[in-house]
Amino acid sequence: MSSEMIAPERPTISAPIRLFRALAVLVKAPLSLMAALPALTAFILSDAASSPGRIGLFFIGTVLSAFGASALNQWSERSHDAVMGRTRTRPIPSGVLSPTAALSIALLFGVTGVGLLLVFFNALAALLSLTTILLYWLVYTPLKRRTPWCTEVGAVAGALPALIGSAAAAGAITPIGWVLFLIVFFWQMPHFHPIAWRHRNDYRRGGFRMLAVTEDTGQKAANHSLVYAILLLGAATIPVLLGAGPLYWIPATLAGLVFILRTAEFGDSVNRDPAAAKLFRFSLVYLGVVLAALLIDHLI
Asked: Do residues 166 and 186 share a domain?
């Protein structure tokens, strides 16, 4: 047999790499890191004199807390993840991690994150972090199978890190902390609804009751997204009242108008899937633009 006919051997993946990948999926690493960015922004804006080491320590504590919340969510939803195509390969349903191991890892991350905020910052930041974890795990997670209003509850949990950042920096919740809370809260509906729409069949199999799942046409989810995108544009103008200049409000306003346009397209499209994909992608761009513009305007 010629060498050309012999199939090349697949490179083996070492156990540490497999474990690292499983942990990254368990804690939803990209989502958790993204959730920590508003917290980091609020921290810097509330205390511009913080050293890089202190900023890094805060970011680590916040990310670990987010890791814990995400892992606890997966531990609770492991039986539902097992019946959905996009989640059945997650570490627990696939058998890579046992439920006991996953729960232990989740608690370790969560306790460590809250502990870092308590020891190196203050009790208010630690309490807000603990509240975020418990709200996401014990309230939002079970509500996903009971009511479409779960999205609003999840949005509160997703917006709380902005308050954690301001509390850690200033010892109290600052005005910019509340503004970022509103921005992230309003942003999450036009960010999440297109995800739920694109994966609606999977969510149905898992027994979830998001708005895009409970109504076949997706129009209610689209209308809901548009209302929140308009509210978001309003919330994103508040930093101007707090002193933000054109380096912030010009890109933030332009991004907000495009966000509304993308959301309207999601509502007007006969085939919503492509419009949902565009809306989801731009939602990530929007949040990045707003947070970066706030920081640049503040620092420059």
From this structure: no
Q: What is the CATH number of the domain that holds 284?
A: 1.20.120
Q: Which amino acid is at 116?
A: L
Q: pTM score, two decimals? A: 0.92
Average pLDDT of every residue of the chain: 92
**Single-letter code of the amino acid located at 144:** K
Whether the pLDDT of residue 2 is over 50: the answer is: no
90: region left, alpha or beta (phi > 0 left; psi from -120 to 50 alpha): beta
Reported in sequence order, the residue ranges of the chain that DSSP labels E, i.e. its strands, are none
Say if residue 114 is exposed, middle or buried (CB neighbours under 10 Å; 0-12, 13-18, 19+): buried
Whole domain around residue 248: which residue ranges?
174-300
Two structure tokens written together for 253: 């306003």
48 — pLDDT class (breaks 50, 70, 90)? low
How many domains are contained in the chain? 2
Please state, in angstroms and rounded to a whole number, the distance separating the CA atoms of residues 23 and 27.
6
Distance of alpha carbon 56 from its chain centroid, rounded? 19
- The domain spanning residue 77 has which CATH number? 1.10.357.140
